[in-house]
Amino acid sequence: MHLDLTPGGDKSYVRHFNGELRPLTAQGVSNAEPQAANHLIHKLLVQCPVLKVDRFHKGGSFGRRTLVRGAFDVDLSVFVIKFQERALKVADWSGEAGERLQREMQRMVAAYLRGQGLHDVVEVEHGTHYKHCVNVKVRGVDVDVKMAAHVASQQGKQATTPDRGKAQRDVLMQALWDTPPHLRQADPTREAALAEALTAVVKDTHDRVKSLVRLIKCWYKYGLQAEIPNVPSVLLETVVLAAAQRKGLLSPGKQE
Length: 256
Hints:
Elements: H1 12-21, H2 32-46, E1 51-59, H3 60-64, E2 74-83, E3 86-87, H4 95-115, E4 121-126, E5 131-138, E6 141-149, H5 164-177, H6 188-193, H7 195-203, H8 207-221, H9 233-246
Parallel strand pairs: 2-6
Antiparallel strand pairs: 1-2, 2-3, 4-5, 5-6
Helix pairs in contact: 8-9
């Protein structure tokens, strides 16, 4: 392969590089199948007799448009108000009792989805991205269903703003800032409940930063993953965002 600039010369390098770069762009990725899978799960869970749901959020790399072509799934956050007629508070999701609650919720939701005719349903208790998640394959599309705490209205925020994601972020992060720095710890429950906030930050980030995110994730998924398995793609994404933030590059850019 060589560069030939003469009229009618060999331009095979163009086809080669276009092919190599295809995984680095979200343009041209069909939304139809992931959207259809998302719609079906949404429809079924609204009717689930053991859950009362406030809202759904389409997150993950598909929702944030940081996906790697041919190597992504759909993440669906389900913000739960009640489970088996029990109204839930954020504290109910933490500690040993919270672990039992989430495991039981995961088990019952998985059983319900199987009962609705979805046969490829897996209960993922300790996954790469989430704990207590239900993975469902719908017509070839992998959907990770994660039940999450709904706290947006528990401090009176819902009455003052229609943006429940922002209200949820304000409540959860204020509790973190009120905690002395030496006592702050990672909390999977909080992180799952902040999925909307992460999507909002990334979607408003300049496209060049999102392209770099896809480059790093592509490098990992199509190369390093064989040598260094089980690295969450959201971790790679966050590293790039942190680097961009330090360089002052998190300014909004055009949307794809």
